[in-house]
Design a protein that fits this description.
This protein is an alpha+beta fold. The chain contains 32 helices and 20 strands. A hairpin with a 2-residue loop joins strand 8 (585-590) and strand 9. The protein is globular.
């Protein structure tokens, strides 16, 4: 007897499909909050640091990569700086790759969100690697949204607010660091084949941000005590460093030549325990204890979570305890930058507790429940979303209709596709994930508006015509360096207070004295001193410097020393003061901006006084370590000698000394000093003229009639500069270079040193080993098991 067909009797799938639904749904919600319809517009992104970040990938695309380099020299900021030596190339390389098939602005914006929308998948992968169960893993993936929606911090990294502030490389590296931990745990506990991917993930983490790399390397230490843990973990470290060495080795070798922004350590416990994690902390403790008892695999993640808590008070506490030891050696590892791992850990382990609760509840429910349950839950979720996201003034975020549409589609799919009962475990998993996601989403206040501000771009701002007119006016002027007035309130309406950093992006041959990568140039602190002197409301971001606000008479010799050609004012007060100041000649105006020309200042200048040599303690990492250790064994109690940078700051503050350059090394005939008070003018015996000066990226040349006389080259110092036709270059105060010509025609080129060649060689070996391992892997996959040797 035939049985009539009754239609499909599908059951909501569990396991893999539930995980994909949770991961995909969480990533989609994050993307919706980021305003994807604006991401695919071709406008140039702006907002915070992001509005200045657009210059560097374009330089990588247009200058470095055509020369076969990923790092080099740029004159666009700070009178020249080493680009991608102290900043991270991987996200920028992906921007350039995407730019091959889409507009630059779209490529840039897509890369800024990839780290965020990849976090749910990375979190799920880590949880599965820790063997926490499918339900717990899916819930932790959803908790990634709770973390990225946090608004209590907007600069430390890894959440949406920090990413929109410009820390998109950190969000990339944070996500990759979780993947690294997952692969490393699998490589030690399951199969050594995962060691390959652990090394690759570690290299990608390092190439995206160094601070996250420090945390996860430290978090790997507990694995050293597992069986085969030491050998495989160290192998992953060595291999990962080798792959990344093309960038990492020059970073390590030159880190002493980066500028110290002297970030003040955080002290408030409100930073460690923001209100957003108060309710989650008890759950997190339960989840951490449960996970720790269940499996030792979770030890690395617990370590990563607790490292920021342990480190948080150290810079302050040890400064108070050992002031003589730490007075000179700053804690460059700012404790605020580690906090994202603490916040994430609290959210993650709270999600573990929720997932365990969902698993426990599912075991006490029937395996299958009515399909009306998911329909009702989806409808309830949509109603709760409307209620929670509505603002008191009745306005809703732009992305809310999309979120409601997603919930409605989920309910519709449930009604149409599944006519039979559904898995109770799946329903509880998705419900727990939705509760966490909606809980995080409920607290969202400003990131939606911030995302719209950033991704609408410069071109959509009301004052874009003024900004565009300024750039066109500057483009009509002869090439030169530009110092501009810093004023956050006046400049922010154009997209970001850093909008004028993009003079070299919008105009040909005009460089900005201020740039984004603050730590990347020795000129940075001296530039901010100059900025204070020509600004009514400067930011003065480096604490401890002797700023002289709004003193144009001091600014003129300083700007001359750096070869600055133009000054751009934005406030009426700065414009009026410049008009009344000697040496500031009004060229044109482009309301509200006024452009002034400064006295001619050649980029190569003949000395009027003999330079003096200050032989400072080494700025290398090894030299700093020796000085640090030596203080513990010193009984003299003597104050350590100032570094060259500290001496140069004292020298720079006294404008009467600017004609006598202090250098870090030089011929034996140059006087040696121990303090700036030892400086006396010693006129040189002959003079001359300089002509045919050419200053390009990675190339400088000039002709001089003063052979044998010291010459100041007004380009920031870096040891990769090599001179032909001159002795030197030597590092000179404040942050420039001095050479002594041995022939009339002198050239300097920025080239590779042992650090770059060594890094390139190590990367070649690391990649070769990776390719070899992949070939072996695919060969074994294609070989019948019985024929393998």
């Amino acid at each position: 007897m035939a049985v009539a067909a009754s239609g499909p009797k599908l059951i909501l799938p569990t396991g893999r499909w539930t995980a994909l639904l949770t991961i995909g749904g969480t990533a989609l919600v994050i993307l919706i909050v980021m305003n994807p319809w604006l991401i695919i517009s071709a406008n140039t992104p702006t907002g915070g640091d992001m509005g200045a970040h657009v210059l560097a990938p374009a330089f990588l695309r247009d200058v470095l990569l055509p020369q076969g380099q990923i790092q080099g020299w740029s004159n666009d900021w700070y009178a020249g700086f080493p680009i991608y030596y102290f900043y991270f190339p991987l996200p920028s390389l992906v921007i350039v790759l995407l730019d091959l098939v889409m507009p630059y602005g779209v490529a840039f914006k897509i890369v800024t969100v990839l780290g965020l929308i990849g976090l749910p998948a990375a979190t799920f992968f880590l949880s599965r690697s820790l063997r926490l169960g499918s339900t717990v893993s899916a819930v932790t993936a959803a908790a990634a949204a709770t973390f990225v929606f946090m608004e209590s911090f907007n600069i430390y990294g890894a959440n949406i607010a920090s990413t929109l502030a410009g820390e998109f490389s950190f969000s990339w590296s944070f996500t990759l660091s979780l993947v690294y931990l997952g692969f490393l745990v699998r490589a030690v506990r399951d199969d050594r084949k995962y060691l390959t991917w652990a090394a690759v993930a570690l290299a990608a983490t390092a190439l995206s941000h160094v601070l996250t790399t420090i945390v996860v390397v430290l978090a790997s230490i507990p694995i050293l005590w597992w069986k085969d843990g030491a050998r495989r973990t160290v192998s992953a470290w060595v291999w990962g460093f080798a792959i990344a060495a093309i960038w990492a080795l020059p970073l390590v070798a030159r880190i002493g030549l980066s500028s110290d922004m002297a970030w003040t350590p955080l002290r408030s416990w409100d930073e460690l325990l923001p209100i957003e994690i108060w309710l989650l902390l008890p759950l997190a403790i339960v989840g951490m204890v449960w996970a720790g008892v269940r499996t030792p695999r979770v030890a690395p993640l617990i370590t990563a979570t607790l490292i920021p808590v342990i480190y948080y008070p150290l810079p302050t506490a040890l400064h108070d305890w050992l002031p003589d030891v730490f007075v000179r050696e700053r804690w460059k590892l700012w404790n605020g930058r580690l906090l994202p791992y603490w916040y994430f850990g609290v959210v993650y382990f709270a999600a573990v507790a929720v997932g365990v609760g969902a698993t426990y509840a599912a075991r006490r429910l029937p395996d299958r429940i009515s399909r009306w349950w998911p329909r009702g839950l989806a409808a309830a979720g949509a109603a709760i979303a409307v209620y929670l996201m509505a603002r008191p003034d009745g306005q809703l975020p732009n992305w809310l209709p999309w979120a409601i549409a997603v919930a409605a589609l989920a309910a519709l799919a449930t009604s149409v596709l599944w006519e039979g009962p559904v898995s109770s475990r799946s329903v509880l998993t998705v419900t727990a994930a939705a509760v966490l996601g909606l809980g995080g989403l409920a607290g969202v206040a400003f990131v939606d508006g911030w995302a719209r501000w950033n991704y609408q771009g410069y071109e959509s701002k009301d004052r874009w015509p003024e900004y565009q007119a300024l750039m066109e006016e500057v483009s009509s002027l002869p090439p030169g360096r530009i110092q501009w007035e810093a004023n956050n309130k006046a400049l922010d309406p154009y997209g970001t207070p850093m909008s004028l950093m993009l003079f070299p992006y919008w105009s040909e041959g005009h460089t900005s004295m201020e740039g984004l990568f603050f730590e990347s140039s020795l000129t940075t602190p001296f530039h901010f001193l100059n900025t204070a002197e020509v600004s009514q409301a400067p930011s003065n971001p480096i604490p401890g410097l002797e700023y002289h606000t709004f003193q144009f008479d001091r600014a003129l010799p300083h700007l001359d020393l750096y070869g600055v050609d133009y000054y751009v004012s934005v406030t009426p007060e700065a414009t009026a003061t410049a008009l009344e100041s000697d040496g500031f000649t009004k060229v044109t105006e482009s309301g509200p901006f006024t452009i002034f020309e400064l006295p001619d200042s050649p980029l190569v200048e003949v000395a009027v006084n003999r330079p003096v040599v200050y032989e400072a303690p080494s700025d290398s990492s090894f030299g700093r370590l020796l000085r640090f250790v030596g203080r513990f064994f010193s009984s003299s109690g003597a104050t350590p000698r100032p570094t060259f940078q500290e001496m140069a700051l004292d020298w720079y503050d006294d404008t009467a000394l600017l004609d006598t350059w202090v250098v870090a090394d030089g011929p034996d005939g140059w006087p040696r000093i121990h303090d700036v008070s030892d400086i006396t003018d010693r006129p040189v015996s002959s003079t001359g003229t300089v002509s045919d000066v050419v200053v390009e990226d990675e190339f400088i040349s000039f002709h001089t009639t003063a052979v044998g006389v010291p010459h100041l080259i007004k380009v920031s110092y870096f040891p990769n500069w090599k001179a032909e036709g001159a002795d030197g270059p030597w590092r000179a105060s404040p942050s420039l270079m001095v050479v002594v010509p041995t022939q009339p025609d002198v050239t300097l080129e920025f080239g590779r040193t042992w650090a770059e060649w060594g890094g390139l060689s190590l990367t070649a070996l690391g990649v070769l080993a990776l390719v070899s391992r992949l070939i072996e892997f695919f060969r074994r996959k294609r070989t019948p098991y019985g024929l393998r040797t």
